[in-house]
Amino acid sequence: MMRRTRSVALLASATALVLGVTACGGSSKSTGTSSGGATKGGTLTVLNKADFDHIDPQRTYTTEGSSTDLEIIRSLTGWDESSGTPKLVGDLATDTGTPSNDAKTWTFHLRTGVKYQDGTAVTAQDVKYGVERAFSGDISGGPSYAQSLLVGGADYKGPYTGKSLDSIQTPDANTIVFNLVQSSADFNETTAMPGWSAVPKAHDTGATYDQHVWADGPYQIQSYSKGKELVLVKNKYWDQSTDVIRQQNVDEIDFKFGQDEAAIDQALVANTGSAQTSIQQWPIAGADLATIANNKSVQDRYYKIPAPGINYLALNTTRITNIKVRQAIEYAIDKTTVRGAFGGSAYGDYATTMLNPGMDGYTKFNLYATDPTGDLAKAQALMAQAGNPKLTLSLAVEGGVTTQTHFGDAVKASLAKIGITVNITPIDASNYFSTTSNTKNQYDMTWQDWIADWPNASTVLPTLFNGKQITASPQSNWDASYLNDPSINAALQSATTMTDPTARNAAWGAIDKSIAEQAAVVPLMYMNFTELSGSKVGGVIKDTVLAEPSLVRVYIKK
Amino acid sequence: MLRYLIRRLLAAAVILLVISVITFFIFFALPSNPALLACGKTCSPSRLVEIKHSLGLDQSIYTQYWEFFKGLFVGRDYGDASLLVHCHAPCLGISFQTDTPVLDTLLQDFPVDLSLALGAAVVFLILGVSLGVLAAVRKGRAADKVAVGAALVGVSLQIYFVGLLLMYVFVDKFSILPTPNYTPITQDPVAWFQGLILPWATLVILFLALYTRLSRSSMLEVMGEDYIRTARAKGLSSRTVIIKHGLRAAITPIVTIFGMDLGSLIGGSAVITESVFGINGIGKLAVDSVTNSDLPVILGTTLFAATFIVLANVVVDMVYGIIDPRVRLA
């Protein structure tokens, strides 16, 4: 899952000043929270620094866009997080689907009574058409699960060519069957992504569908001015009895785009006027995070959401070939200074694994230093075993982003203690991942982060450590450590297709450990995402799947 | 006069053409890959080919430029046969990022920049020149020092800081003004005015010092001329001497700078102000387009801004002929 970088705006110092003022003299109003149920009516304002890349369900791949799609469209399955832990439920489908043929075939039955904004019924054929759209070159940006999982997906070019994909069958208006190229026990978690949803052909506007998404969720688009404002109003044909995830409490949701993130943070902290009924989807700016996290007056409207995401340092194993040196780096990195660079303890807990706690497949272990400051003696001993090479290593970080500059400095200082000189190379932030995922890059170490598409190791380890992609997709290689170990590649393939959950989770945990043994990456922090709302916003759910404040049951307090 | 105007406009067209060529080729010389950005995080090589085709990036640079140039006059068609999108002439292309025609976005954003620029410019020109004249006439006295000093403090403050501070005081803390916002003047003139007060104030604070100091020094120079002494000796009132004889001569360099400032403000140069207050105009559009490697929007915003700067220069030259009789346009 992509997300916009938690960046530090131009305004860093200025804001710190103004926020400082706020922290002392700021809101002393009581928020008057009542434990009573949701109230109906009102307008929620969402303050975002930028427009979504896409809200076309087949194109969105950002946490903000996907979270917004929850209001407008319904996917086959979804996550009910009202209890505090994510639970997979049927959304358009009556249940979480039925696997057969060793989980190579999945059948979903649609609920009856789910209607679009014009009152017509959602059909299985519309879901098939929706999924097929993602294959067109015009419908770019979305995840590639459909292409890699569905039979014939590699060659299919989308419905605009007049052809349909035979591996998706719709025996009747309420049944849809997917035929997969391999066993996929968590396919029904894949189908909780927005792309696995219905698009009526008559209302498909191709590349411009972002502005014309046809709603079957509780809200529909009233107006959408790209880069400025998106206004959602109630879909009067949405029926609460067909939906276990959402409620339809507020009358209107008004997304405003383009305000500076420091100005948004400032307005939400001050909590006056329309800011009281506002919320943000982009995380609090890095420079503001520590101030806001320590501001007691905002704690009841401060959402710290543990994301299924990992912040890590990738060591290129084809460039730093000596495993002793890589292990020395594991021991030498001072994670306390690294975390300080990203905003301190509010940013997240120290990581020792690539899989996050709470994710299917997570196994707790720590092969290296027990103290987050590192273990210099062990690191120096390992460097001595490696013959004390005088190394100079390059480190790629995002350019022009203060947190990243501080991160680079922290790594440089840590490694200087074991005789490694680090050359920090900043890369333009908007081109950062396309540069580091291009196999032509020449960096010894790169900063990376990754958010799972759903809380399962299957959306983390195969993408980040399958060495086959180095040659298969040289411009989009996420194996940033260039680990290409035949036994790990085989273990990843085997775990991906396992159908027994217990065996599968154990297999993921074992792979995570063998990657750590190779010292291919230094896991740094399990990431939190933090957002603020105004005091009159109620019913916000911490969505740990999307790492967003979920608005599916939001209401405005009277 | 007319021949002069036609000649200047033709030259302007050539300048714009050159700018479009330079922008286009610089874009392709830089290491950016819009198709890969559009493709998403996990992108297979075959999918990348499809997306390149969809964006028209699979053609040679020369063909792409020719298509762009032709589109300016005859329009262009986009997309697969089943979902054809026509972009009417003058077509500046369709954004890679938002899939909307660039010209539509520019025209939609234009009133924002026009309101922002005109409102602020009127105030900083009148106020700046008045303060400058006052300072010049009372050179060395308290009024001079206060005017110049205040203006200097204004320009020395960071625009981010001024913007955020104004927001904090007037909106977040005391709720005197609504959150800055752009409402079309045709829809609600009062909301239009209220929503723009703080952005205008920020721009005025930024530009005031320049105009005050410029008017002051220009005025001081003119007031030392022989003909001013002659005018005074004739017994003309000091008001007539200052306004009619002094200011009229002193204003020429100010008009030059003002023309350029206004042109670039309308063309979207007030990007930080736009961003702090969340009033998104062409400046924000231009910055975002560079971040997103969105070539059609980069070209569109560059040409749009260039057009206003070039036109402002032509207008300034025409105005010279009116305010300064010594200038003959031929």
Strand-helix topology:
The complex is a heterodimer of chains A (558) and B (330).
Chain A: H1 12-25, E1 43-48, H2 63-72, E2 77-80, E3 87-90, E4 98-100, E5 105-109, H3 124-133, H4 145-149, E6 168-172, E7 175-179, H5 187-190, E8 219-225, E9 229-234, E10 252-257, H6 261-270, E11 278-280, H7 286-293, E12 302-315, H8 323-332, H9 335-341, E13 348-350, H10 376-385, E14 391-399, H11 402-416, E15 420-428, H12 432-436, E16 445-451, H13 461-465, H14 469-472, H15 486-497, H16 501-517, E17 521-532, E18 537-538, E19 541-543, E20 548-550, E21 555-556
Parallel strand pairs in A: 1-10, 1-11, 14-15, 14-16
Antiparallel strand pairs in A: 2-3, 4-5, 5-7, 6-7, 8-9, 9-10, 12-16, 12-17, 13-17, 18-21, 19-20
Chain B: H1 2-29, H2 34-39, H3 45-55, H4 61-74, E1 76-78, E2 85-87, H5 102-137, H6 142-156, H7 159-173, H8 189-223, H9 226-233, H10 238-269, H11 271-277, H12 282-291, H13 295-323
Antiparallel strand pairs in B: 1-2
Keywords:
heterodimer, A: 558 residues, alpha+beta, Dipeptide-binding Protein, domain 3, six-stranded mixed beta sheet, five-stranded mixed beta sheet, 16 helices, 26% helix, 21% strand, B: 330 residues, mainly alpha, two-stranded antiparallel sheet
Overview of the molecule:
The complex is a heterodimer of chains A (558) and B (330). Chain A is 26% helix and 21% strand. Chain A is α+β, with helices and mostly antiparallel strands. Chain A has a domain at 306-528: Dipeptide-binding Protein, domain 3 (Roll), CATH 3.10.105. In chain A, helix 1 packs parallel to helix 7. The radius of gyration of chain A is 24 Å and the shape is globular. The two termini of chain A are 36 Å apart. In chain A, 58% of the residues are buried. Chain B is mostly helical and 330 residues long. Chain B is 75% helix and 2% strand. Chain B is built from 13 helices and two strands, in the order H-H-H-H-E-E-H-H-H-H-H-H-H-H-H. Chain B has helices at residues 2-29, 34-39, 45-55, 61-74, 102-137, 142-156, 159-173, 189-223, 226-233, 238-269, 271-277, 282-291, 295-323, and strands at 76-78, 85-87. In chain B, a hairpin with a 6-residue loop joins strand 1 (76-78) and strand 2 (85-87). In chain B, helix 1 (2-29) packs antiparallel against helix 13 and helix 5 packs antiparallel against helix 6 (142-156). Chain B is globular and about 85 Å long. The mean pLDDT of chain B is 88. The chains are: A alpha+beta (558), B mainly alpha (330). Chains A and B meet through helix 1, helix 6 and helix 12 of A and helix 2, helix 3, helix 7, helix 11 and helix 12 of B.
